[in-house]
Amino acid sequence: MQARKTRLGLAAAIVLTATFAPAADDDTRRAIATLQAVTKEGRGNEDAAPAWKTLVDQGIAALFPALEAFDEQNPTATNWLRTAVDAIAEKHRAAGHKLPAAALEEFVKNTRHAPSARRHAYELLVEQDATAKDRLLPSCLNDPSPDLRREAIAQKLERLERSARPSIQADLEKLFTYARDKDQVDAIAKKIEDHGGQVRISEHFGFVTHVWLIGPFDSTGGKGFAQAYPPEKARDTTGSFQGKNGPVAWAPFATTDKYGKFDLNELLGKHKDAVAYALAVIQTAKEQPCEIRVTSPTAIKIFLNGQKLLAHEEYHHGAAFDAYIGRGTLQPGENVVVLKVCQNNQTQSWAQAWFFQMRICDATGGPLPLEQKVMIDGRTKFVPLGFLAPQEKKK
Questions:
Q1: Quick one: 194 exposed, middle or buried, by C-beta within 10 A (0-12, 13-18, 19+)?
Q2: Which domain covers residue 252, as residue numbers?
């Protein structure tokens, strides 16, 4: 009987989805296409406003086509679509109707939709039905949507802390594996330690903790960012080159910081108008996509196997965690990651920082099964990404 009820409930949800998410008509498709063409540079803005109005005028029939059109790679277009979805929902409620809750719930559960679209559908649903949180969040601990994942982890953590069980260490350790945001990772790690356990933050985040460094090279007048010095295309750590103040060569370094911070002022000396390169060798058993995420207060470029993934020229603007993300594909075997880190000539005290953190992870920010080449006691070997050698843990 219960199985029959479950099948009937699912069938009802499908019917509701079909009822409230019909195939978009020509006007809806044209309006969505116009909004999708808007870029952050302003191209398409003139046509966006009338297209937005046309889409909203379609009413509830345009709600799901608009949600399905969210694009993580085009946040400007998605902002137009998001406000259209809100206007459609507001008009529908103002007319005395409820939003199609079952269809919204199915949309949230479908991970093929854009994370931002699923999150927005979730917010519309919870605004109408607060009980949806308890139905949906427990299954979102490992969700590809960072916002849904974060809220699910926060809910689970709160419930664990309220539980009367004598030990929650095992549950905290499991929850730790799902966490991606630094503040949540730190909080859960602290609670695990309070319960007598220990976790490896550097390995959880996939930080590169062993690199070869070379520099400084000249960047007078900011020329170094555009100039490709020989290490930029390096596939190994051989060779000596003319640097800013004379010959320079690669040298191995390891960080003792659990967040993978390399302070170039300490490692290479304090230099202004300078360029440094960091090289890491990453080993994987299979081809797989990856994200190389970098934190730095100065200009950077990211290269993977000689291919530029990202370039950003800005100085002393803060150093937000994971500020820069280069997306690429790791090949089976050894892969060479080169990070270019520039420094300018500002003299203010707050403009002296010259450092980087670099990690390699999946699209959610989670760890990948990777190894990094390290040099210990004059010998090279491969160890898990994020590895801190025992002697390095003693500060």
A1: exposed
A2: 206-392
